[in-house]
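Run folding on both entries below.
>entry_1
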Amino acid sequence: MTSAATPAYRRLTVEERRGQLLAVALGLFAHRAPEDVSLDDVAEAAGVSRPLVYRYFPGGKQQLYEAALRSNADALNRCFTEPSAGPPTERLGRVLDRYLAFVDEHGTGFSALLRGGSVAETSRTSAIVDEVRRAAAEQILVHLGVERPGPRFGMLVRTWIAAVEAASLIWLDEGKQPSARELRDWLVDHLVALLAATAASDAETAEVVKRLLAQETPEGPVATLARRVAPVLGGAARLL
């Protein structure tokens, strides 16, 4: 009786090994701050030696962290891509669903990335983070139908992105409460309210809001928010 054949060992290619080490590092950075992850941790988790990690990342931990950050930035950029069809607020809702799923999966690493102060932070890592913010702003402008925003509208978009980042960090700190769906809906409402408030004093924003309203539906986020705040605004009208 012959024994079962032992599976043949296959040596990983350079790209496969590099990809394996990067995947391991991404997993570690997702749950621990960059300064708390060492090359020994990466080597142990990957089941390889420390010199082997250096062979593929001769710049050491900094190079590995920047590669992991670049990988996460590319993943975040993909979150922002959404077909330009249907009501704008519903498109942004789907973008936020993907974004919050990413935040949920990469909690600790996401916090360390946005809060800064990491020993691994450099001008290169800061540039990668800024690139993600620019990509987010560009995609939001696409969904809002604005190609070259004026100063007020550009500030509106950047302000909302900052609010989304801050809300994400608070959400992580508070045990991911409320639910991701509730947070998503609130962030969409936040943008709608910001647009409405800015439209009252900025002609460009007022025109954008008119175009957006024409694309919304009676059951969508804008109409739902309007119905909810109508009683509050009715009470406030007595002060006028």
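>entry_2
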Amino acid sequence: MNEQLRRELLAMQEEDQRVLRGLIDSGELQEQEYHPRMRAVHEKHNARIKTIIDEHGWPGRSLVGEDGTKAAWLIVQHAVLDTGFMERTLLLLREAVRNGETEGWCLAYLQDRVLTMAGEPQIYGTQHDLDKNGLAYPLPIREPDKVVQLRREIGLEPLSEATQRVQARYRPKNNNPKNS
């Protein structure tokens, strides 16, 4: 295992999530389509993850451990500045899932992200948006009658639970009655 690379990926994930959480908590995330601070983090991470993947292929469990491969997935999931890269990475991620190098839900999230960014309905219902009242809802799903089965097969929780989780995550802490 490449411990140095693992630590680097985990640090990138931590920075991404720290900036995101700060923007959510301050209420700034919803004020702009793509907040400049989040964009700056993604630009830096996009460049680095491309280099990592060029050098190593998909950073799977055997290279960076379980937490490292999940961190790599999050960084690619947030590589929204380069959807072509995200699409190319899908092939590597599919192979990594087949080889037991990462979990299937990582592939489901990235597949749905690529589809919804292209204006297409998603497969697994992993991508959500917030309505004008701040309520989370899943973006259109290609085959809604199959989503329960597909989510179960890939190791995802029920869609209703996922929507509740998204709702809770994107609620600013300063607007949460439990924290008042």
